[in-house]
Every structure is written in structure tokens, then in C-alpha cells.
């Protein structure tokens, strides 16, 4: 209850202030302000009782200044500006004590020098601490340089003051110094404790992250071994199956079952090959190396893979990329993109045409896979044209396009290309692979 009353003037300044040190500074300002009002009021009363008119007037003026200061702070006066104002008030007291009211040293005036030094360093930081400490010493140095002689002893307080008023002033300044040191070191220890607790939490988090890193490394190593095993134990038998069934299909073209098995094994092999190459590329974390590619030659190679599938679907392949069209990119990754897009176009089209064309612009080259199928679902085309990486939440879309488009979308970012889908004219879909030059 008492603390809330003493801190009432700075309630606005404390709102939203998270720094432990700044909160301590604001609280010292409030306690010092309340202390000053109390002690100045007592001084005014006792100066009146002691019939010391000059000091009574001075105490009354100071009390008025402090009350105005209190009102300003209570109305939200910024605490740093309030601290600067307090330093200026203390400096004025030092100057007037030395050169007007007392014309000499006393213990109370020297205390104000200590108050200014401690309060400036604590409340405003090192730079302002040095500035105000230097300014506070100036009047004392000037007093000596101007030829004033120091008495054999230093009086306790202003001339004409009684013991009670001197005791009040000494108590006021001493209490202010104690308050400053108390809150400073309290904030210091709180900050240290807070840092210690955060250090413990950080150390615990680092240990957890290190443990997770080791687990991920083990998992990563396991995945690489698994990919190598799949590549050796699955891709090799598939290649053998593809070669054998292909030979049988050529030798016995009238056997539709053998031809279907040959086509399936051919497509399965190339699908596994692309998938394994892509997965291996990701797990090896290899850099994407760009070389010059002949686009026409790459399209011909991909068409050759799907020739038999095209015959089954009564589709026709057209390579509209003229010889000599060269791009600088990664052959392996561009090959995977073309493979998936041509495969999707061939599966979606029956009795139509799948063509690969290009458009050469000043800053870009568009490699376009066209089909004359029923067209791509809007949810899928919108997803391809967007920045999203995950497939749209549409069960049919996921079933129709599966992992192929997801791989294509991710690879396009690796090779610094963009995908854009739009309707083919008069029917079908056009998928643009946009390469920056």
C-alpha cells in the first residue's frame, strides 16, 4: 500500500517499461520526489519557528518548484527529462549556496555534490554522469580560484540554521544517496539473477538442440544408406526387367500382355530413377551446378521414354524447340521437371497432341509443355501459379498428380525457375517453365 502511494507519481512512466534498470531509475525518481516534498516542508516549518526569514523564503520557493515538478511527473513527464531537471535543480542549489546565501562551504552543500555525481551516473548513464559531475565540481573550483579562503573547519549547514534543520538536510541527502545505491544494486542483482536463469535455460536448450542435431545426423546417415540401398537393390532389377521385357516386346509385337508389361516396367524404371535422383540430390545437400544444355536434344530424349505410352493413348509428340536453343541450368533437375510434365500431359490426353515449344524474351526463356487434354483442375493450376509448396487440400488433385508436381514445384526453386499454368488454345493445358537469363 505504502509503496503504491510512493510510486503513484510515476505510474504512467512504469507502464510498458520492461527494463529492470529503467524501472529502478523511475522508482528512485518517485521516492526522491516524495522525500524532497517531505523534507522541504519540514525545513520550511522549522525555519519559520527559528525565525530565519531568508532560509524560510528559500525553502518556500524550493517547495513550490518541487510541487510543480511532482505535478509534471504525475502527468507523464518523460522520466529522463525529469532526471535532467533534477540535476539542474541540484546544481542551482550548489551555486546559490556558495555564492549568495552562505558564501562558503558547508557539509550540506558538499552532500549535494555527491548526490549530483551518484544520481547522474545512476539515473542517466556514464556520459551524463561525467558531464554533470564535472559541472558540479566547477563552482567549488571557481570558489577557490577566486581567492576565497577556506575556514579551519567546515560548518554543518547554512548560517543561522538550527540543529534540527541541519539534521533534516543531512538526512535528506543521505537518504537520497542510500535510495540511489539501494535501487541500483537491487536492479543490478535482479539483472544478474535474470541472466543466470536465462543462461541455465539457454544451456538446457543448447543441450537439447545438440542432442536433436546428433539424432538428425544419425537419421540423415540412415536415409542416405537407405537411398543407396534402394538405388542398388531396386533400380538395377528394374533396369534388367525393363530391358528384358522391351526385348520380348520387340520380338513378339503381337503379344499385348508382353507389350503392356514392357511399357509398365519402362515407366516404372524411369519414375524410380527420377525419384531417386531427386531424393539423393536433396540428401547429399549438393550445390546446384549449372551447365549449358541443348533443349531440343533433351526434349527428344524425354519423348523417346514415353513413345510407347503415347501410342497406347493414341497421342502424338511434337518437338517445337528448334535445334540450337541453349540454356544454362542443371541438366539433372531440368530433366526431372520435363519428365514429370510430359508424363502428366500424356496421361491426361487421349487421341491428342503433346508438344514442347519455347518463347524467347529479352530477360526470360519460356519452355512450354502443351497438351490437348481436358484441362487442369483450377485448384491445381492456382497452386502451381502461387508461392505455396504443399499440394492443395483436394483429394482428387493429390491422387491425379501425386508427388510428381510437388517435386516439380520444389525443383523449380532450386534451378531459379518459375512455373506458370494457363489454358492451351483451343483446348488443353500449357505449363510454362520460365528460366531467367
From TrEMBL:
Residues 229-437 form the Histidine kinase domain. SMART domains: HATPase_c. Keywords: Cell membrane, Kinase, Membrane, Transferase, Transmembrane, Transmembrane helix. The keyword Zinc does not apply. Its main location: membrane. It is a multi-pass membrane protein. GO terms for molecular function: phosphoprotein phosphatase activity; phosphorelay sensor kinase activity. The chain crosses the membrane at residues 28-47, 59-77, 83-100, 107-124, 130-154, 166-185. SUPFAM superfamilies: ATPase domain of HSP90 chaperone/DNA topoisomerase II/histidine kinase (SSF55874), Homodimeric domain of signal transducing histidine kinase (SSF47384). GO terms for cellular component: plasma membrane. Its EC number is 2.7.13.3. Pfam families: HATPase_c. GO terms for biological process: cellular response to phosphate starvation. The keyword Cell membrane applies. PANTHER family: HISTIDINE KINASE (PTHR45453:SF2), PHOSPHATE REGULON SENSOR PROTEIN PHOR (PTHR45453). This is histidine kinase.
Amino acid at each position: 500500500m505504502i509503496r503504491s502511494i510512493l510510486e503513484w507519481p510515476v505510474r504512467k512512466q512504469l507502464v510498458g517499461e520492461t527494463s529492470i534498470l529503467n524501472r529502478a531509475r523511475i522508482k528512485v525518481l518517485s521516492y526522491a520526489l516524495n522525500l524532497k516534498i517531505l523534507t522541504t516542508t519540514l525545513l520550511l516549518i522549522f525555519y519559520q519557528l527559528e525565525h530565519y526569514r531568508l532560509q524560510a523564503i528559500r525553502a518556500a520557493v524550493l517547495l513550490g518548484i518541487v510541487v510543480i515538478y511532482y505535478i509534471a511527473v504525475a502527468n507523464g513527464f518523460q522520466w529522463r527529462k525529469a532526471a535532467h531537471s533534477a540535476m539542474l535543480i541540484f546544481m542551482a542549489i550548489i551555486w546559490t549556496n556558495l555564492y549568495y546565501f552562505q558564501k562558503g562551504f558547508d557539509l550540506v552543500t558538499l552532500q549535494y555534490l555527491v548526490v549530483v555525481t551518484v544520481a547522474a551516473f545512476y539515473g542517466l548513464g556514464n556520459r551524463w554522469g561525467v558531464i554533470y559531475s564535472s559541472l558540479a565540481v566547477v563552482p567549488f573550483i571557481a570558489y577557490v580560484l577566486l581567492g576565497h579562503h577556506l575556514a579551519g573547519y567546515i560548518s554543518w549547514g547554512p548560517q543561522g540554521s538550527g540543529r534540527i534543520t541541519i539534521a533534516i538536510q543531512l538526512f535528506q541527502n543521505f537518504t537520497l544517496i542510500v535510495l540511489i545505491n539501494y535501487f541500483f544494486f537491487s536492479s543490478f542483482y535482479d539483472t544478474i539473477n535474470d541472466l543466470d536463469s536465462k543462461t541455465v535455460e539457454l544451456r538446457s536448450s543448447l543441450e537439447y538442440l545438440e542432442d536433436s542435431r546428433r539424432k538428425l545426423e544419425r537419421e540423415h546417415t540412415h536415409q542416405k544408406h537407405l537411398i543407396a540401398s534402394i538405388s542398388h537393390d531396386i533400380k538395377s532389377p528394374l533396369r534388367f526387367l525393363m530391358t528384358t521385357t522391351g526385348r520380348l516386346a520387340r520380338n513378339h509385337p503381337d503379344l499385348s500382355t508382353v507389350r503392356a508389361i514392357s511399357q509398365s516396367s519402362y515407366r516404372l524404371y524411369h519414375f524410380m530413377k527420377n525419384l531417386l535422383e531427386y531424393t539423393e540430390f536433396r540428401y547429399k545437400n549438393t550445390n546446384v551446378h549449372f551447365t549449358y544444355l541443348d533443349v531440343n536434344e533433351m526434349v527428344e530424349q524425354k519423348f523417346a521414354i514415353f513413345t510407347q505410352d503415347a501410342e497406347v493413348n493414341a497421342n502424338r509428340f511434337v518437338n517445337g524447340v528448334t535445334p540450337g536453343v541453349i540454356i544454362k541450368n542443371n541438366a539433372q533437375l531440368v530433366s526431372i521437371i520435363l519428365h514429370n510434365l510430359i508424363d502428366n500431359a500424356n496421361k491426361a490426353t487421349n487421341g491428342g497432341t503433346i508438344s514442347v515449344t519455347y518463347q524467347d524474351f529479352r530477360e526470360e526463356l519460356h519452355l512450354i509443355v502443351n497438351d490437348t487434354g481436358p484441362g487442369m483442375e483450377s485448384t491445381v493450376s492456382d497452386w502451381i501459379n502461387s508461392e505455396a509448396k504443399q499440394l492443395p487440400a483436394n483429394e482428387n488433385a493429390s491422387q491425379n498428380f501425386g508427388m510428381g508436381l510437388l517435386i516439380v514445384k520444389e525443383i523449380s526453386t532450386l534451378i531459379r525457375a518459375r512455373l506458370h499454368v494457363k489454358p492451351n488454345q483451343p483446348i488443353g493445358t500449357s505449363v510454362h517453365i520460365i528460366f531467367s537469363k
